[in-house]
Write a structure and sequence with these properties.
Elements lengths: L19 H22 L2 H8 L3 H7 L3 H11 L13 H16 L2 H9 L7 H29 L14 H13 L5 H23 L1
Length: about 210
Amino acid sequence: MAALTTDVARPSRGGRPRDPSRDGVIRAAILRLLAEVGYGALTMDAVASEAGVGKATIYRRWRTKQDLVVDTIGDLAAVGAVPADTGSLEGDLRSLMHGYVSVITGPTGAAIRSLLSTIPHHPALAEAFRTGPVSVWRDGVDEVWARAERRGEVPAGVGHRLIAESVSALLVQRWLITGRPVDDDVADEVLETVVLPVIRNAVATSR
């Protein structure tokens, strides 16, 4: 998971096709504003000002603020959609967890955090999050476990247990609940002292 990028120009909800040359600037502005003021105080005019584009550019692409944010959430699905294949489960998990750190500590993570209290009250936002980033990120984790099964590193089904959630659980807890630092060193410690021992135990008991 890395910086928010996409190479595909998608048609907006009710507007003219997007100009890809402006997409990155506008999306970055939306993420900054979501992190700074939250969904409730976000305005279309503020996005235009922050992005340095005309208001018409924003209103041609999105009819409402909800359309704008739903579209932005959908774009988050592009982040880390294809997890690295390092040749081993440990390497794949380390790469995956470092990717989580990049998101958590970057503008995408700040925007997601600001939306978490809003999403349950806006069904369209919740659906966009479930079918966008949550679905894609889950598929990425599943692919890491599927590779490990194909290599013979773990028995079939091990990755579909709660063990799979341990890969991100402690990082998310620090990020959202305790407020303690989250960096690559923390991710490595979680992997080596929690995740890998749990995996080894699960493998041993499955055979």
